[in-house]
Amino acid sequence: MGKVALHNKRGRQLFIVFILAMLTLLLTSIVALANENKVTVLASTLNVRYGPGLSHEILTQVQEDAQLNVLGEENEWYKVRLHNDQVGWVASWLIENDEVSTDTQVRVRVTSPEANVRQFASTDSEVIGTVFAGEEYQLLYRENDWTQILYQNRVAWIHSNLLEVTTTPTTQAVVTPNSDTVDSIRVGINPTNIRRAPSTDSDIVTTISEVTEFAVVDELDDWYQIELPDGQFGFVASWVTESVSNEVEANLPPVDTGNQQHYAVNLAEATIVIDAGHGGHDPGAVSSTGVVEKEVALNTAMILANKLRNAGSNVIMTRNDDTYISLNDRVYHAHQAQADAFISIHYDSVEVANTMSGTTTYYYSESEKDLAEAVNHYLTQFGPLNNNGVRFGDYAVLRINGQPSILLELGYMNNDHDLTMINTTHYQQTIADAIYQALSAYFSP
Length: 445
Ligand SMILES: [Zn+2]
Fold this sequence. Notes:
By secondary structure, this protein is of the alpha+beta class. It folds into four domains: 11-36 and 104-179, SH3 type barrels; 38-96, SH3 type barrels; 184-251, SH3 Domains (SH3 type barrels), CATH 2.30.30.40; 267-442, Zn-dependent exopeptidases (Aminopeptidase). It has helices at residues 2-34, 293-310, 327-337, 369-382, 396-399, 416-422, 425-442; strands at residues 38-41, 45-49, 58-63, 67-74, 77-81, 87-91, 95-96, 107-110, 114-118, 127-132, 136-143, 146-151, 154-159, 163-166, 184-187, 192-195, 204-208, 212-220, 223-227, 233-237, 242-243, 271-276, 314-317, 341-348, 359-363, 387-392, 405-412. A hairpin with a 2-residue loop joins strand 12 (146-151) and strand 13 (154-159). The chain binds zinc ion. Zinc ion binds at residues 57-58, 277-278, 284, 293, 346.
């Protein structure tokens, strides 16, 4: 009996060792799979952008031979994770891509009813969100008891005990929980078009001119679907509404149902938000000689702000120093102040050095074209560099901005000729003066 018992115990131990070995193998292969899509940068400097295309703003830059993890692919652009866990997009033709297969995504499913999403792999780390049972996320990496996932377009960690790996991706759409889910919205702060489909090109069903609350039926991209009093359904652009429910409300200015449409008729009564691009850990474009966009943008912004203040304008700067400010926070300043104009100051960069030159003015909504054209006119007239005209630009600081907003690219950091100009106080003063003159003309009766 004794012998048999001993034998069984030994057998169980062996069995447990075997199971542990198999588990280790499984986890190792998962990690290997998650790391399989590493690619190498071929260009000497590669722009990492906020979205898949040249029209998207530059998030940061990486140097030749840098290793990136590919998370996805769209229109010849790769969504990548950088070594510092930022997520952005790069042109696929500028990276070595023989081995890339974006189909081998490994996903995890949340098994716990609710799980904290953290910034780092530790329970001491900041909670940046909550996920719920059944939701699926892309697995990026596993170490010790922690799993790194792609969460709301950023890299985050969840304790591995709260997840299971789903090696075969389900056909069900990925749940991308939005912590800012809105139940009900206010429409009609300014006359607001309700459209048949979620696009500014779609037919107008009706226009709402009085502030009215609607329950949100559905959310599609940046649009809310609502039911009108006559039973019809329509879509309203989220950026012209205010949320009534949840914490988002605290971030919005109080609703004044009185005279909302105040258009300043001179600089002295205008509230102008000056937004110096990038800052802090986000340098923006960097020249081959080490000049950083965040610095020249801030210098230019400060010169412009001083000129406007001297003219009596109420000037709000989204940053006064080398601090990182999120795109949402930048726009928040414009909304809170009900700014008459939001001017975002940037310097440009292109995939191949010295192939582009000059200044460009971007707008998002048709209604902002006047402001864009006014400013661009003066940039053309007084700016020492070539001008590339007024263009539509899908920049978040414009897209989510309910106030009149434009974004200026004031020369190319990776054009040798532009750079010799850009990096001088003389150029920055000349450009700031051109913008100042433009605003002065724009805010005149
Ligand atoms: Zn920029």
